Amino acid sequence: MNSIRQRFSTIRHFVLYGVALALLVFVLKWLHWKFLITDLAAELYTGLIAVFFTILGIWVARQLGRSSSTPGAAEVDTIPLPPTGDKINMVELEKLQLSPREYEVLQLLARGYSNADIAATLFLSVSTVKTHVSRIFVKLDVKSRTQTLEKAKRLNIIE
Amino acid sequence: MNSIRQRFSTIRHFVLYGVALALLVFVLKWLHWKFLITDLAAELYTGLIAVFFTILGIWVARQLGRSSSTPGAAEVDTIPLPPTGDKINMVELEKLQLSPREYEVLQLLARGYSNADIAATLFLSVSTVKTHVSRIFVKLDVKSRTQTLEKAKRLNIIE
DNA sequence: CGCAGAATGGTACCAAAGTATGACACTCAT
DNA sequence: ATGAGTGTCATACTTTGGTACCATTCTGCG
Q1: Of residues B61, B69, B145, nearest to A57 (C-beta)
Q2: Full-prediction pTM beyond 0.90?
Q3: Cβ of B144: how many Cβ atoms within 10 Å?
Q4: Strand D nucleotides, any atom under 7 Å to a protein CB
Q5: Which pLDDT does position B44 carry in this prediction?
Q6: Per mean pLDDT, which of A56-60, B81-85, B123-127 is the most reliable?
Q7: Spatial separation of the C-alpha atoms in residues B12 and B3, rounded to whole Å
Q8: Which residues make Cβ contacts (< 8 Å) with residue B38, sequence separation at least 6?
Q9: Is residue B132's beta carbon less than 7 angstroms from any atom in nucleic acid strand C?
Q10: Counting C-beta atoms within 10 Å of the first and last residue's C-beta, which end of chain A has fewer, N or C?
Q11: Res. B101: pLDDT tops 60
């Protein structure tokens, strides 16, 4: 519950969601009108709705997935992590006191992402990524991203 | 694309996907017929398609989400993950055609060593280490040491 | 309300990583 | 002996990573 509230707590998210919904209604109305004119549009109608809602579903899943992958979030909202082989060491993870955002960055870091990659993925500036990464270094007591990877792998705090 | 293939590699996935598609076609056909009878069904038609594809989108996202990582280079791996335990995957290791010295460097690299660290450990100059590392990058098809670590971990070619 | 903490972003600067290219010596098999 | 492969090292250059310091905005809490 908290994580959902947290996700949509910023104004930006509300605006984005609103715009998306408005766009959806608009497209549906337009398609509906178009649909009444010619029968050929029926297939197009179906197809477009399918594509739109598939993308919407992906987006929803990603939104939910983000909040479910944060540490310290005691309650996970309905969506459990997909069956991963080895479990993440939550004990060690809690010890590090990483913020949710920092853990997100850490996960991308562990996949070999560059700062620019992380920035692009999370829609951040490189500056912000650097800030997060630096804080991660302090909390993990390491001096480089390769050491971070090694330690994260050793502590088993990433999938 | 390859990650998708990887996801659908098991027979169970094929069966599930086939059943889902068959069900979809059936429902669509039925709804289409129903639609010709009464105009009220149009809204239901749209709604059901929307719900179905939203769920499909969520499913797709969750299938792709946890394993597909596309850093800047946008290169995809064809290698199926070997479910080996702790032993080093000699098969993959041989494929890479790393020279003995290169493998030595790789092992230190995987421990989070900097180029200077590696040079000091192996009694080499930093230049030499850089050369080795560059060749490792080419053979592993990566662009940075963090990507190297990630891939080496995934291929299970280091301890 | 005011404050702490999280998240974001910026500038400036230095260190490290990475690329490109060339060179030299050694081994080993054809 | 010749060429391929390896290992070594160098210079010059570009890119990325990392640190330090500061500012702004938003949220949660007492």
Answers
A1: B61
A2: no
A3: 19
A4: 5-11, 16-22, 26-28
A5: 56
A6: B123-127
A7: 17
A8: none
A9: no
A10: N
A11: yes
A122 touches strand C (CB under 7 A): yes
Within window 98-127 on B, which residues have Cβ closer than 7 Å to strand D?
99-102, 122, 124-127
> With an 8 Å Cβ cutoff, are A144 and B58 in contact?
no
Q: Which residue of A has its CA nearest to B64?
A: A58
CA A117 – CA A11 distance, rounded (Å): 26
Residues A92-132: tens digit of each pLDDT: 788 888 888 999 999 999 999 999 999 999 999 999 999 99
Checking if the pLDDT of B113 tops 50, the result is yes
Type of residue found at A62: R
- Please give the pLDDT value at position B102: 94
Q: How far is the CA of A106 from the C1' of D11 (A)?
A: 36
DSSP class per residue in A63-119: HHHHHHT-TT--S--S-PPP--SSPP-HHHHHHHT--HHHHHHHHHHTTT--HHHHH
In whole angstroms, give the CA distance from residue B33 to residue B41.
10
